[in-house]
Amino acid sequence: MPGAPRPTLLVLAGYAAEEVERQAAELVDGTTAVVHHDLALITEGVVRRRLRVGADDETRVLELAHGCVSCTLREDLLPLVRRLALDDTVTRVVLHLDPTLEPEAVCWALRHVVVEDGPVLDLVDLLGVVTVVDEGSWLSDATGDRELVED
Asked: CA dihedral in degrees (97, 102, 103, 108; nearest 10)?
């Protein structure tokens, strides 16, 4: 319908995955879609995508496209957000990023990668990007000797 408000998009990122998940779960209702790509099994070539809208809770296992996390997410996430943006019943999309993902790269893809007839951000209003850290461990995590692959 012309003049209908576009759905909003909220990107949640950070290292306090449990807290982000709890907050995202509170947002789920009949008009909010929450999307999360879990990279815990990435070393096995598997990405799990969870999509929640209202009472619907669907998890799909995705194979790693070309052995590349970026390609896998771009090929799955961007068309999914586009589809959700065009769904008249969805008023808000929440992207709950895996703690290993940088929100800047995801936001760049949302703005610049063409999906069908244009970038995804042409279809939604970006409400915000919220990044959280674990206040109890962030300083030691940021200044410690452990490499990221050890986490």
From this structure: -120
Domain coverage including residue 27:
8-150
Question: Tell me: the pLDDT tens digits for 6-46?
Answer: 999 999 888 656 666 677 677 777 899 999 999 988 888 88
Q: Total domain count for the chain?
A: 1
Q: Does any domain span residue 103?
A: yes
Of 64, 70, 57, 54, the C-alpha closest to 113 is 70
Burial class (CB in 10 A: 0-12, 13-18, 19+), 30: exposed
105-123 burial, b at 16+ Cβ within 10 Å, e below that, comes to: ebbebbeeeebeeeebbeb
Degrees, nearest 5: CA angle 72-74-79 = 115
pTM: 0.83
Closest to 21 in 3D by CA, of 106, 104, 109, 132: 132
Q: Is residue 40 part of a domain?
A: yes
Q: What is the DSSP letter of 29?
A: B
Say how far apart CA 48 and CA 14 lie, in whole Å. 18
Contact 67, 76 (CB under 8 A): no
